[in-house]
UniProtKB/TrEMBL annotation, chains A, B:
Its EC number is 1.4.3.-. Residues 124-540 form the Copper amine oxidase catalytic domain. One of its GO terms (molecular function) is primary methylamine oxidase activity. The keyword Repeat does not apply. This is Amine oxidase. Pfam families: Cu_amine_oxid (PF01179), Cu_amine_oxidN3 (PF02728). GO terms for biological process: amine metabolic process. Belongs to the copper/topaquinone oxidase family. The keyword Transmembrane does not apply. The lineage of its organism: Eukaryota, Viridiplantae, Streptophyta, Embryophyta, Tracheophyta.
Length: 549, 549
């Protein structure tokens, strides 16, 4: 990964470059008004090899800490971070004003007018007897029927290991997942312009989700009674450094229902049974430059693991000469929506690829695609013409497990242990349940897509290999796409009844709008890992309701 | 709709039918052990016309109120509810044992052993100053920047009307939605067997989502500080009756984040800003026989409306001679998974179709499909080969607005007011954001699909017509599919700059598993209505954080 030292070096070199001052002055700014960031350079062909370079782009911080909304559009520097020199400087944006972007300071202390909303009374999650979980040895979280190891990681952000769930019949802990983490985060921007084409971030491998995860804000990022965990990482020179309060763990009660049933009175049963849902969440938030990524791993007593990624922070905006939509050519207006005067919110995608090393009861697991297929009835067989049938297809090799999700070709995606059977004979398993998602539509030979080819499918399954942790390859910065999940999977190895890793990519398309300015309300999406015949029956049937005090 | 009286009549007629007693005795049951339910008969061709009929199927309630798990498989009666006679009786299931189904009583009072899970300490949502919302005239809910009318409805369950949101600049209430409700709920089971083929429920139009919504259980169905609202409905003979505490309204705080941003220290800004998310939820739960459907309409201060449907309750199981999977032919085992001894969980789908009469600022609205399309760069134009472009397509007529969702042909679906522009010139709008979804794969000419043809697409837009409220037609029971959303939409009326209605269908495929036995942990999915240039900027920028006391 790039280190904080690499970034500091790049910024120092750039900020002392005289041409930059000239560009600032030309835009009516003094050098101290300028704040720069370091987009990764990507890799766009053999001519770029042999140098460790980074891009530097700058903004005006005049009157606001939200400099992201005030780009010095058209100005791009390429810095060689080993030689500590600017190797390329271009400024094609002299005609484009720095957006005025008033009212962008989002810090509460600088809000002059109050929010024009009827006030919301204080509300909090209270636990008079304290939380119900423990954290042993600083890392082993035990709660209800769950136990797992939780670790801050410089690159992945947060790693869940050895997640075990007590059997509902015997109370014995059973393995669910050996290791789960966000392996890579690919963010391609959709503008071929010379100042924009390279923006195709691979945030985990380039900057680090843990390295950029700042302290969480108590009561605002995490509710009362949260337990906070530090990250302890290595600096560029080997010195350890601490990211304090980087992860929080808390019990979540949102007023949701765990299970319920009422009977209508007609049959004489007067039944109203409902159980509230309480879950355990491990959370961190990476601030990779402008964007904030909030990761939640939520554990439910019914065995479900719910993984949510929420996006907030700042847009990357592009300066334009246009103040209003009417002044823009219609094509430009559609593709890059105006989010404020002289500021276009550039279209982009986010793809978060999870490494999910499932170990259902043991390492010998099999991936099963249960296809829902339309069957037609035979003439005279039934008044019905059609119905669905579930067809189980065992994935023998990696080829069988490369999956693009299709609404009209639905399947259930299970990881099972073929040797562990329920009393009825069903294999113990977990399924991955996609929620809302988005796919990468870029050309497979486009350099950013080649490097992030792990987003070519939403699901992949590989045999465990200790060198295959990072979906974009161990060395991601300026990588050429020769060490990605797609390359590994192309070997088409056997995956049946083996120690397998499930990969899932969660995607977002983002067409910005004015509500995203100057800081975005969170947008979230999620997927679930859900038991399928792992238990003999509903494991929380016997859960107690809450009674009035 | 069928009335409770229709159901009572059908049950009386069935339970006094001598053949039924014989069938019960043959299975070792006494008549008092038998509980029956009334599946709707559907409509399967002209030969069935002219009679108001209902099916009756029975179960053993011996030792359990969860009779659903103990079917008298193969026994089906057809009752004429006007003539009050059994018009058809078949019992083909004499060889199939009634599943023993031990341990199915889900009532807490009858649990003998405690749950084998480390206890969870008490946890609750507390509001020392009370809730922040008011309910005026029994129906008008006011909270934060929202105001809407909330009504219990015998058919739809819950209706949100005249939802208005205060403008963040002026404080003036602005119209978002004239009316939103669940218009129909289609549940086709996937078994062509003579005792199963007809199971293709249309729960709103046949049984009523409000008519079957029992009292919510305080603290278990809804958190502390909930406000409860009754439903007041008409009986078959016009007598009013009350469904007490049918809807709850509460403020939800789940420890989620409304927006946030941290700066990494490298630029000298030491910023940690985060805002907690508090929302307002209106909830009801319909118990349509075995299944429980929990509907949440959640309102956020950033303008987003989040609609969630959660499913719980009981499976419809099919008796089988097989005790374990090994005894079953492999095809049968795959399609109808064994969930307990002698009990198959039959595959089925759920589709909930929402009527969303959006009125963005006024009635003159337009549906815009913003397609994300891959563009290729020209040779020499850019190191990038491809990027996405947003192309706005205005739907002129209903043909343009029939949409099947595709992951690889993504679009944003907006309802805009072309006359109401932001200061930048962007039209005020809301978009519908699908989450996880499932589509109906049945043959379009299959009678159940013909009657529920509103599930042929996930999105439709129609011009407002007061006769087009119920997606399956005003009279759904034994309908023939000649008055559905698909029929209305086929007229291909003009919809541009008109009072339009957006229809969205949320679907679930359900392959049962042992965890669903004997009562299902909730499964949920959702969609969002989200402002797009409705506000000039993030409307909650100025929201206050929570400070430690």
């Amino acid at each position: 990964m790039l280190t904080m030292n690499d970034i500091s070096v790049a910024l120092e070199v750039a900020l002392s470059y005289k041409e930059l001052n000239r560009s600032a002055v030309k835009r009516g700014l003094s050098p101290s008004d300028v704040t720069c960031v370091t987009p990764s350079a990507g890799w766009f062909g053999p001519s770029e090899e042999g140098r460790r370079v980074i891009k530097v782009q700058c903004f005006s911080n005049q009157g606001t800490p939200n400099f992201y909304m005030r780009p010095l559009e058209g100005l791009t520097m390429t810095v060689d971070i080993d030689k500590k020199v600017v190797v390329k400087f271009t400024d094609t944006g002299g005609e484009i004003p720095v957006p005025k972007a008033t009212g962008t300071d989002y810090r509460f202390k600088n809000q002059k007018e109050p929010l024009k909303i009827k006030a919301i009374n204080p509300i909090s999650i209270e636990q008079p007897l304290g939380p119900s979980f423990t954290v042993e040895d600083g890392h082993v979280v035990k709660w209800a029927n769950w136990e797992f190891h939780l670790k801050a990681d410089q690159r992945a952000g947060m790693v869940i290991s050895r997640a075990m769930l007590s059997d509902s019949e015997t109370g014995v802990p059973r393995s669910v997942m050996y290791k789960g983490f966000s392996s890579e985060l690919f963010v391609p921007y959709m503008d071929p312009d010379e100042n924009w084409y390279f923006k195709s971030y691979m945030d985990a491998g380039e900057f680090g989700m843990g390295a950029t995860a700042m302290s969480l804000v108590p009561l605002n990022d995490c509710p009362r009674n949260s337990y906070y965990m530090d990250g302890i990482f290595a600096s560029w020179d080997g010195t350890p450094f601490v990211q304090p309060n980087m992860i929080c763990v808390f019990e979540r009660y949102a007023g949701d229902i765990s299970w319920r049933h009422s009977e209508i009175p007609v049959n004489g049963f007067d039944i109203r049974e409902a159980r509230p849902k309480v879950t355990l969440v491990a959370r961190m938030a990476a601030s990779v430059g402008n964007y904030d990524y909030i990761f939640d791993w939520e554990f439910q007593t019914d065995g479900l693991i719910h993984v949510t990624v929420a996006l907030s922070g700042m847009l990357m905006v592009k300066g334009t000469t246009h103040q209003t939509v009417d002044q823009m050519p219609s094509q430009e207006a559609a593709s890059g929506p105006l989010v404020s005067e002289n500021a276009i919110g550039v279209l982009h995608d986010h793809f978060i690829t999870f490494h999910l090393d499932m170990d259902i009861d043991d390492t010998n697991n099999t991936f099963v695609k249960v296809d829902l297929v339309k069957e037609r009835t035979l003439p005279g067989q039934s008044p019905r013409k059609s119905y669905l049938k579930a067809k189980r297809n065992i994935a023998k090799t990696e080829d069988d497990a490369r999956i693009q999700l299709k609404l009209y070709e639905p399947s259930e995606f299970q990881v099972i242990n073929p040797s562990r059977r329920s009393r009825l004979g069903n294999p113990a398993g977990y399924k991955i349940v996609p929620g809302g998602n988005a796919a990468s539509l870029l050309d497979h030979l486009d350099p950013p897509q080649l490097r992030s080819a792990f987003t070519n499918n939403q699901i992949w399954v590989t045999p465990y290999n200790r060198n295959e942790q990072w979906a974009g390859g161990l060395f991601t910065y300026q990588s050429k796409g020769d060490d990605t999940l797609a390359v590994w999977s192309a070997r088409n190895r056997a995956i049946e009844n083996k120690d397998i890793v499930l990969w899932y990519t969660l995607g977002f398309h983002h067409i910005p709008c004015q509500e995203d300015f100057p800081v975005m309300p969170t947008v979230s999406s999620s997927f679930q890992l859900k038991p399928v015949n792992f238990f003999e029956s509903n494991p929380i049937l016997k859960a107690a309701p809450v009674f009035e005090k």
